[in-house]
Design goal:
Blueprint lengths: L2 H17 L17 H28 L3 H17 L2 E2 L5 E2 L4 H8 L1 H18 L8 H25 L4 H27 L6 H38 L1 H6 L9
Antiparallel strand pairs: 1-2
Helix pairs in contact: 1-8, 2-5, 2-6, 3-4, 3-5, 4-5, 4-6, 4-7, 5-6, 6-7, 7-8
Protein name: Cobalt transport protein CbiM
Subcellular location: Cell inner membrane; Cell membrane
GO molecular function: cobalt ion transmembrane transporter activity
């Protein structure tokens, strides 16, 4: 088995593992009607400036390099597939990966905000996954907070001369986990505990999802590295076009 065949085999096995998990009827996206109108409006208003910036950034990226459309579409599909797979949790709820770290590393977090809201909109309408009234809250946690942290970690590790693939793994994994931290805080603000307030409620929400989300974050980090390795092998010119690979980098 040559190098290319081994690579295809690894990718096939990784996706087979993910798609082999049976989804449940609920997911970590905040569901329709779960937040009061004031919080729905609040998170929508907070997300709006990031979305405007994301639209400008996406438009600029495509204008500078038309070939980047293929990679952008791939990043969007990656987000859609991973965030649509709802994994049963041992706590009785369910969790899912986000897939946003990969796009943030390739194009920056602003572009991912647009990809994320498109994915969340389709999921809310077609899959009853999330909701239209909670779109602002879900967008902020999954398409803004997570990607910005993932991008920041990746850039910091790169400046520290850390191995690139390990940087990608850590950035994608922590970006995934941060999404759930933000979602837990959003839920805690909306439903504070009678005894410990917002903090106690946030700890409870984090405890519900942590047993499943930690291993899922690790899997997402590994998958992101596998995708990057595949792109470095078969789409090197496209990666150079978006500035991910430098001229003499292999």
């Amino acid at each position: 088995m040559n190098k290319k065949e081994k690579m295809f085999m690894i990718i096939a096995i990784a996706f087979a593992i993910i798609f082999g998990v049976t989804p449940t009827a609920n997911a970590m996206h905040i569901m329709e009607g779960y937040l009061s109108p004031k919080y729905c409006i609040l998170w929508g208003v907070i997300s709006l400036p990031f979305l405007v910036l994301g639209y400008i950034s996406l438009k600029k990226t495509i204008a500078e390099n038309r070939r980047s459309i293929t990679l952008i579409a791939m990043a969007g599909a990656f987000v859609f597939v991973l965030s649509s797979l709802k994994i049963p949790s041992v706590t009785g709820s369910s969790s899912h990966m986000t897939g946003t770290g990969l796009g943030a590393i390739l194009f920056g977090p602003s572009v991912v905000s647009i990809l994320g809201i498109i994915v969340l909109l389709f999921q809310a309408i077609l899959l009853a996954h999330g909701g239209l009234t909670t779109l602002g809250a879900n967008t902020f946690s999954m398409a803004i907070a997570g990607p910005f942290l993932a991008y920041g970690i990746y850039k910091l590790l790169q400046k520290s001369k850390v191995n690139k693939h390990f940087s990608i793994f850590l950035a994608a994994a922590l970006g995934d986990l941060f999404t759930y931290c933000v979602t837990s805080i959003q839920l805690a603000i909306a439903y504070p505990s009678e005894t410990g307030g917002v903090l106690a409620s946030a700890v409870k929400f984090l405890g519900v999802f942590a047993p499943t989300q930690v291993p899922l974050a690790i899997i997402e980090g590994i998958l992101s590295v596998i995708i990057i390795i595949g792109l470095e092998t078969y789409a090197k010119s496209e990666l150079k076009g978006i500035g991910f690979l430098k001229g003499g980098e292999k």
